[in-house]
Amino acid sequence: MNKYMIYLNGKRCIGCHACEVHCKANKNLPVGPYLCEIDHSAMVTVKSVAKTEFKFRSCYHCEDPFCMHICPTNAISKREDGIVFIDQEKCIGCMACAGSCPWTIPQFNPETKKAVKCDYCMDRVDTGLKPACVTKCTTHALKFVRMEEL
Amino acid sequence: MKKSVYSICGMCTVRCPIRVEVEDNKATWIEGNQHLLKGALCAKGAAAAALVADRERPQQPLLRDGSRGSGKWKKVSWPTALDYIADKLKKIKAEHGPESVVLSSRGGPWQDMYKSFIHAFGSPNYTNHDVTCGRNTHHASLSINGVGRKDFAYDIKNAKHLILFGRNMFSSLRIAENLQTLDMLDNGGHLTYVDVRQTITGLKATRFMQVRPGTDYALALGMIHEIIKREVYDKKFIEKYVSGFEDLCRFIEPYTAAWAAKECGVREKAIKNFVDEIAEEMPKVIFHPGWNLSRYGDSFYASRALHILNILMGNIEQKGGLIIPKGPGDCGHKGLRNINIPKPDIKRADGVGWKYPHFDKGPGLAHLFFETMETADPYPLKAWIAMRHDPFSCLPDPRKQMEYFDHLELLVSIDTHYSEFGWYSDVILPECTFLERDSIIITQKGPKPRFAVRRKALEAENDTKASWEIFKGLADRLGMEDYFPYNTMEEYWQWQLEPTGYTIEDFDEKGFIELADSPVMFDPENLDDRFKTPSGKVEIISEKLTCAGLPSLKEYQSPIQPPRGMFRLVYGRSAVHAHGHTTNNPLLNELVPRNTLWINTKAAERLGISHGDLVDVISEDESYSGTVPANVVDYIHPEAVYTLHGFGKEIPLQTRTFNSGISDQKLMVGKLNDWDKAGGGINLCQSFVTVVKSVKNPQRRVEL
What we know:
The structure holds 2 protein chains of 2 kinds.
Chain A: E1 4-8, H1 18-27, E2 37-40, E3 44-46, E4 49-51, E5 54-57, H2 66-70, E6 76-78, E7 84-86, H3 96-100, E8 107-109, E9 114-116, H4 122-125, H5 132-135, E10 142-146
Antiparallel strand pairs in A: 1-10, 2-5, 3-4, 6-7, 8-9
Chain B: E1 2-8, E2 17-23, E3 26-32, H1 34-37, H2 43-46, H3 48-53, E4 62-64, E5 73-75, H4 78-96, E6 101-105, H5 111-121, E7 126-128, H6 135-145, E8 153-154, E9 161-165, H7 169-172, H8 175-186, E10 190-195, H9 200-204, E11 207-210, H10 216-229, H11 235-241, E12 242-243, H12 245-252, H13 257-264, H14 268-281, E13 285-287, H15 299-313, E14 322-323, H16 369-375, E15 383-387, H17 391-394, H18 398-405, E16 410-415, H19 420-424, E17 427-430, E18 442-444, E19 450-452, H20 467-477, H21 489-497, E20 512-514, E21 538-539, H22 543-547, E22 566-572, H23 586-591, E23 597-600, H24 601-606, E24 614-619, E25 625-633, E26 640-644, H25 664-667, E27 688-693
Parallel strand pairs in B: 6-7, 6-15, 9-10, 9-13, 10-11, 12-21, 15-16, 16-17, 22-26, 23-25
Antiparallel strand pairs in B: 1-2, 2-3, 4-5, 4-17, 8-14, 18-19, 19-20, 22-27, 23-26, 24-25, 24-27
């Protein structure tokens, strides 16, 4: 059972893409891979105001992740709290994981030549902190939700 | 070794408070100060470490080694570069007098040091970028309230309605202000947004009015009319504090809501509904008087009208209104010491104070130096030092500016990155990044005033220096060491803090020193000495303007329509970039690598342009053009095209942005002299451009 999820309050999101850069800065990623993204739909008119909807996407941390099963070096595992992560030591950068993922979530890091993906910043989570994107969201629109709280 | 440092961000000029975690001289974590922003930080702040690591910025002083703009540079040491500048300045001073040197900066809380430097040198000619930013708003506020635009803080959080005229706040990103606005909306508040196009700010609005470009003033007049007609204003406040209200009533007579609706292209009902709403909400209604309101010939008067609307709401020193910022003295504290060398008693070369007595003498008006460069009247100008200011990116028509600057013997650029002006200058003095430098302690006035300080989180890994070291180095060489009697920032901080009783260690806990526990408010029933006008009242009719032969209430003139086949060029910014400062940052460039041209769907259809097509954007005189993809959208007025400012840069060493996108200021050919004689700001939205589908669109291609 997944313990965590990231929720976006679309009313507060201003589509500034800071979450994407906070993530990259925290994971020390070069130009190229991005582990979360803000997406906005085309504008529609609501009561004479043109509106758009913001969506946030990172990894879905599937119950039964395809990426984990396909990984030839068993570099991908799912923790008890649901976080799916890649062991950088074991990863050989074959990117089979990206191919197996319906959303092509795992990304190739051209500097380390390995696969990277969102792990909810588990090193931070394990010390009681929140993922980088949530902690520093410009408008506090992102929330890190612990499922049992619901 | 790990450490945590509180500091102030420098990716843009909002200067948000931050906390930086450092390990082995690398910034591993940067967040908004938890005590003030609860961690919030924008993409630019997040990309600060990428700025530090970026090698596409000057790494050591550079001396020009070819003709101006040729891009040939000689790498030199700091002593060599500073000696070179000091020798030149001494020679210029001896031959032409100290007043022939101009120093411009980006403005802001640290400008005391640069201003003092040029004053100590003997020149009155300090200026900043404000003619391309808030000068009209500032002068508008002075003419009505007797105090400047920064002498009001907006209590948006407690407001019920915020009205923004073209103030695209969710792209400009003053995080604290944004959080307040979203909190206000969460609490059921209203946001009315007026612009020629739909923006992120408009998306969050509860009412969006898309107006014809250049008609902001008309809409504000229509609102004033409707408010006065329906007597939805604070009569007590007007009676007590305002002079000239009868003149306003007479003047506003013809500018009905119906008239304004027609002129602006909005529905009359929208204006009436709006007034219905604010009638219930006042005085907790804030009309933002504009920020970068240097756009049209009547922007100054538009800002005056917005100030007048605030007055009608009676929102001054009211919760949810405009709050007079408090300083240390207002909460029983002593203020900081600051280096502040008075201006020499010499006429300014831009004419401010003598030729133009109605303008604020502080930083003068930067664009008025150009003519003096050519005419040498009242005296010749020989050198320009640009401190973190890029005239070629701020002001229109850089090519014309180059002709003017060619009259000068010395051009110096002090900046963290290569600026377009820097590339043309004679010497580039590279400032270290904000993470690598200490700055003087500043006072942040507000309902809860603070002292704040930027402190070095990292040691610079290249041969760059902090601005205080640069000015100190120049001052020592120019025999001005007595004016800058410190050797380290610690010494300077100590001297600054001495009267306050605080020490620099007091900043360790939170990164700032709070001078009041709760907001300090004046009695709204007793604001008598708060308006610094000649009469001490809020003045609808300003004597200063009358004396300058300018009307206080100016008749509205409809903006001219773009010539057939042309569009009015409007510009703006995004949440990702701080204009040209960040366009070459690897992580930000990845998100927005170039700008596009926004064009109305129907207008594009007539030109056979589809979304994504490459279009050529051509200046009015056809001397500059650029090619960018068209962003075809419904929500932009058909008379206007829009582009993001900060692109079209031509600095080869910035490989990521070299020649990418178009530059709005380069399209503004011949517009350097198009400025507001009443407000002092440059009219940056008075250029017309031609747009054609580019022949560069891929049609047929062979591979040989």
